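Onboarding guide, step 5: your first structure request.
Type a short instruction followed by the sequence, for example:

Predict the 3D structure of this protein.
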Amino acid sequence: MTDNHSITGNPPDSGSTGGSRSIKLEHTSKKKLIELWYIEPLERMNGHEAFVCLSVCLFLYEKYLRMTSQIGQEESFSEGHEVFKLIGKDLEIPADDAYEFWTCWRNGLAHRGMPNKSEKYKWGLTGQQQKRVVIGEGHFTINPWFIRDMILNKVKNKKQIWEDELSPFMKVFHLVEP
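The system replies with structure tokens like these:
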């Protein structure tokens, strides 16, 4: 079922008329909202939705890494940082290749809508391989669905990542009717 409502973090002004209404989420658990807003839609994605799915999952993964103190709130993901050992472990690749993945895939999707060009590898994306990442002679192929599943498992199991002062969890949202 698709919903044509748009959600914003702004509560409605008192003078709004028709076409919009305010919803208070006080009786909906945070767990349920996370499932509705992130987990369920991402788990339903497949095929050509891979770029959108991977983009959102990588944002969630960064939130997870920052909120579980794997990298500080103000630290950057710079080459040689310890966080790439963890990312490499999660992706089952060496830390240097995890850095290449992050700078090309995460940064490319976040800032350009496509993976950044790599001096080291040609990129590939497939749901057919049985590993999260396969690195071969001059190529680096990822399975977005295995990466998604790994990230969502981490997010589901660490609910404290949503206790974020810089990005507080929404309690009220505004529906704008189409």
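Each response can be followed by summary notes, for example: Residues 13 and 22 are 10 Å apart (CA to CA).
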